[in-house]
Structure formats: C-alpha cells, structure tokens
C-alpha cells in the first residue's frame, strides 16, 4: 500500500517518520530509544496546525480570491463554480478546525508551562517581560483571528455556500463583502502575530 495515495496515509507516514527520526536523535544523544515530552509534543501540534491554518488563510487571500475574480471576469472561461463546489468546502473544513487546534494546543502549552495568565495579561501578573509581552501580543492577535474565523467568516461562508438560510440577494452581497473584508483583516493581523510568536524565544527583528 502506497501511503502517498491518500491524505490519511500521508499523515501516518509523516508521524511514523517523525518518531523514527526522534528515536535516532535520542539514541545519538544517549537518551534512550524514546523519551516522551508533553510540552514538546503540544508545541509540535501547535506549529503543524498553525501552518495549516495560516497557510490556508494565505491561500484564500493570495490565490483563491484573485483567481475567483479572474474566473468571473473571463466570459469565455469555465468560471469559478468548480472552486466553490469542490475546493472551498474542503479548504474551509481544514481551515476552521486547524484554527481551533492551533489555539487549543497553544493554550495547553501555556497552561503546562505555567504562563497562561502572565501571557494573556501581557506580563502584568508576572513572568519574564521579554517572553510574556511579545508572546502575549501574538496570542491576542491569534485569538482575534480565531474569533473572526468562527463568528464572522464561517457563518457568512455558510450563507454563500447554501448551507445556511439567507435573506435574499442583498444579504448574500453583504455576506460576500464581510468574508472578503474579514479575510483581508486576518491576513494583515497574521503577519505581526507570527512575528511576535517567534519573537518571544528569538527576538524582535526591528
């Protein structure tokens, strides 16, 4: 069975390869065959889910939205119907659940690291300000992105895909405008979010 022929197979193959490489590194460092680290595992889940989430956010903003506009304007072309029918629902499924897993894994990491309150208060309750302030800014930006995904983007996307009732053409036009605007806002917010998330352990680039 070729694991590359299915999404499930790719996930399993990637996980097994990760474990195998971790075993090699552990043996090379004299740490035994396996040494499970919950914090490292949760951080890994947070990063992988975050890449899926932000990657799809950039796909929507920088690839799909311009492509749909171009396909709509191309009178002799096939149009954007296939994107809306086959690609968009699956992309949105991965997008919204990746956002939740990213936020949840990040919050769990901060809980286990005993820094959740300090990070969410931007260091006002304690902690190292070189960590809690930039991480807190990144966390709050990520929280805004998550809220936008579930409470603004998804309800309006459901209307546009016919999965939720709408109040007519004017309501659909409003939903389309809301989706486009919020998607752009999330793209803008994601850039400083990533900078501050990385800045906590590595420093601010400016």
Q: Helical segment tally? A: 6
Q: Rg to the nearest angstrom? A: 20 Å
- What coarse outline follows from CA principal-axis ratios? globular
* Strand residue percentage: under 5%
The helix-and-strand class reads mainly alpha
Uncertain spans:
none
Count of DSSP strands: 0
Q: Percentage of helical residues?
A: over 70%
Structure description:
With 206 residues, the chain is mainly α. The protein folds into two domains: 35 residues, no CATH class; 165 residues, no CATH class. The chain is built from six helices and no strands. Helix 2 packs antiparallel against helix 3, helix 2 runs antiparallel to helix 6 and helix 5 runs antiparallel to helix 6. The longest helix has 36 residues. The radius of gyration is 20 Å and the shape is globular. The N and C termini lie far apart (49 Å). The relative contact order is 0.09. The mean pLDDT is 95.
């Amino acid at each position: 069975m070729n694991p590359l022929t299915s999404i499930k197979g790719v996930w399993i193959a990637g996980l097994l390869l990760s474990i195998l490489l971790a075993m090699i590194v552990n043996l090379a460092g004299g740490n035994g065959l396996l040494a499970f680290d919950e914090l490292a595992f949760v951080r890994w889940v947070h990063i992988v889910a975050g890449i899926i989430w932000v990657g799809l956010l950039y796909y929507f903003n920088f690839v799909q939205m311009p492509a749909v506009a171009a396909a709509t304007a191309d009178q002799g072309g096939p149009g954007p119907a296939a994107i809306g029918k086959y690609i968009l629902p699956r992309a949105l499924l991965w997008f919204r659940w990746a956002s939740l897993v990213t936020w949840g894994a990040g919050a769990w990491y901060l809980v286990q690291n005993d820094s959740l309150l300090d990070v969410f208060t931007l260091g006002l309750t304690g902690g190292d300000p070189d960590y809690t302030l930039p991480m807190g800014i990144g966390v709050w930006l990520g929280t805004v992105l998550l809220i936008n995904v579930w409470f603004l983007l998804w309800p309006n996307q459901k209307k546009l895909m016919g999965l939720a009732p709408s109040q007519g053409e004017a309501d659909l036009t409003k939903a389309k405008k809301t989706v486009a605007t919020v998607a752009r806002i999330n793209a803008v917010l994601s850039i400083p979010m990533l900078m501050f998330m990385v800045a906590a352990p590595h420093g601010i680039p400016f």
